[in-house]
Design a protein that fits this description.
The protein is mainly β. Helices cover 11% and strands 32% of the residues. It has a domain of 133 residues: Deoxyuridine 5'-Triphosphate Nucleotidohydrolase, Chain A. Strand 6 and strand 7 form a beta hairpin.
């Protein structure tokens, strides 16, 4: 099992354990948890009530929370635009780099680095970086994918997706796009900002093949009956007895 270590350089931040990177499973959104169970009459035996599958039972929604870690906002973060002087400002209530004068909680990206080259559909007004007083130690051959926290919706900012290799650049920073219609946003302390998803770097190739029943039927059908051929409790949860 690969071990991913976050090494924190600020003692105050280290003691705030609830703000450290946490498993993604801790951040299943409330709307997903509250999706109700829905039942419908069985097509053959109307007296049976069959549970309908929804997003709470779909592996593509559920399994995504089984891997990866979430980076949280270490402090409140306020970013705003002053139209009169055409200047962007940021403030945080606490300096995590007080002993490192060359570093700061937030860094403003120069527009020419990325923002000026984005299409208008991006709606990006500013790109800024959240800097963490921590760096990473990962096994050789591993990288980190940086992804949005799945199914957390808001209209003020978005994390810029990407990949980095801690063996080259080890500090854990996150890049964001300011997309709000407002001139000021506040990201509250503890807000889940992004997912770190470790992966092993391996070479691979892809190909396409024309379907051949003799060759491919095992792949196509091997689990169909195993999944659909049982009266398990989640399939017929509410059996009604009319006798």
């Amino acid at each position: 099992m690969a071990k991913i270590t976050y090494i924190i350089t600020n003692e105050v931040y280290f003691e705030a354990k609830e703000l450290h990177p946490q498993p993604l499973k801790n951040f299943i959104p409330d709307w997903l948890k509250k999706v109700p169970n829905t039942f419908s009459p069985d097509s053959i035996v109307p007296s049976w009530s069959r549970k309908m599958r929804n997003v709470r039972a779909c592996p593509s929604f559920v399994d995504i929370y089984k891997e990866g870690h979430v980076l949280l906002a270490p402090t409140d973060i306020k970013i705003w635009y002053e139209k009169e002087n055409d200047i962007w400002y940021w403030r945080t209530p606490y300096d995590l780099f007080i002993d490192e004068p060359e570093a700061s909680n937030i860094t403003i990206h120069e527009d020419e680095q990325m923002k000026n080259h984005l299409p208008s559909a991006a709606k990006t007004k500013l790109i800024f970086k959240v800097n963490y007083p921590m760096f990473m130690n990962v096994p050789r051959g591993y990288g980190i994918r940086v992804l949005p926290v799945p199914y957390h919706y808001q209209n003020d900012w978005r994390v810029t997706t990407g990949v980095f290799t801690p063996s080259n650049v080890s500090q854990a920073n996150l890049l964001f796009e300011f997309i709000s219609d407002k001139d000021e946003i506040l990201i509250k302390q503890g807000t889940p900002l992004a997912v770190h998803l470790p992966y092993k770097k391996e070479k691979h190739s892809i190909s396409t093949e024309l379907y051949n029943p003799k060759k491919h039927n095992k792949l196509k059908y091997k689990n169909v009956l195993l999944i659909n051929g049982r009266f398990h409790s989640s399939y017929l949860r509410n059996i009604r007895d009319n006798d």
